[in-house]
Write a structure and sequence with these properties.
The protein is mainly alpha-helical and 294 residues long. The protein has helices at residues 2-19, 26-46, 56-77, 83-92, 102-110, 115-141, 148-156, 159-170, 178-185, 188-199, 208-230, 237-247, 253-261, 266-292. The chain is globular.
């Protein structure tokens, strides 16, 4: 219970900072530090702890497997809606908040041992989806041009991805460096939750029927689909639980920001991110409790 109180307290602190006199660019500066320092430090510490085997391939590709039903549901749900609503659903249903929220939630529910698998799911799944699929959706519905070379360059130079490649090829850091990298890594959870709280938006004019159907799919049906996918495999319980809980994360804040900035149903997009996060603070512990009894 205490870890969830801590999570809620940091989310509320982030919301309070937004309501105060935070300096211009506060969120951008916070996210810059998280993405360039906190996450890479966590990656180089945690990834070498993984004992790689064939079962981890499922962790890396699960987000891609769930892309197919997510796109199908978004197209069905938006069949009588505007192209802007369709674009919002195509962005927000497949992309989950698997890093900024996923790391603290999985740490609270399953402990530090789950973090390497969270990072594997996030970097090979959510991040690549945002970089490739997300960019394609924005380009398609803004009628812009898609530049695969620039997307690939940005993806390969992204600091967490560089840290992941370094950790995979180099392995554990030398002992004298470990304590200093650990201190930098410890900034991830508090800063990420404050950033999430600061970024939350709750708009008026929300189409509640669409919101309810999209949220039900994202928070309950997707984790159920992931459970059906992993059942035939003899995964260790921690790996299985991490995959399912990551699939159950609410929509990604970055995807929501992209949708709003692109004019893709801003009220619906903001509601799916903001209210979806609050709903997930109830649904995720429930899913975690159910998995513990499997």
């Amino acid at each position: 219970m205490e870890p969830f109180i801590y999570i809620v307290a940091l989310l509320l602190l982030g919301m309070a900072l937004r309501l105060g006199n935070a300096p211009a660019g506060f969120a951008q500066s916070l996210n810059y530090f998280i993405l360039y320092v906190s996450v890479p430090s966590t990656v180089v510490l945690q990834i070498p702890k993984i004992n790689f085997d064939a079962s981890l391939l499922l962790v890396a590709i699960m987000a891609w497997l769930l892309l197919i039903p997510s796109v199908a549901f978004a197209l069905w749900l938006s069949r009588r809606e505007s192209p802007q609503v369709r674009a919002a659903l195509l962005l927000l249903l497949p992309l989950g908040n698997t890093s900024f929220l996923g790391i603290p939630i999985l740490q609270a529910l399953r402990g530090d041992a789950a973090i390497p698998y969270v990072l594997l799911y996030d970097q090979f799944g959510s991040f690549l989806l945002l970089s490739l699929y997300g960019a394609a959706v924005v380009a398609r519905y803004e009628s812009g041009a898609l530049h695969p070379r620039l997307i690939l360059q940005k993806m390969l130079l992204f600091p967490p991805m560089l840290a992941l490649l370094f950790a995979l090829f180099y392995g554990s850091l030398d002992a004298p460096l470990q304590p200093y990298i650990e201190r930098l890594s410890q900034t991830l959870i508090p800063l990420a939750l404050i950033s999430v709280g600061f970024s939350l938006r709750f708009g008026e004019g929300v189409p509640w029927r669409l919101f309810a159907q999209a949220s039900a799919f994202k928070l309950t049906l997707l984790p159920l689909l992931s459970l059906l996918i992993v059942l035939p495999f003899d995964l260790p319980p921690l790996v299985r639980d991490t995959v399912i809980l990551e699939a159950a994360m609410p929509p990604m804040i970055t995807a929501g920001a992209l949708a709003v900035a692109s004019g893709f149903a801003p009220a619906l997009s903001a509601a799916l991110v903001g209210y979806g996060l609050l709903l997930s603070l109830l649904s995720l512990p429930l899913i975690g409790w159910l998995l513990a009894y499997m």
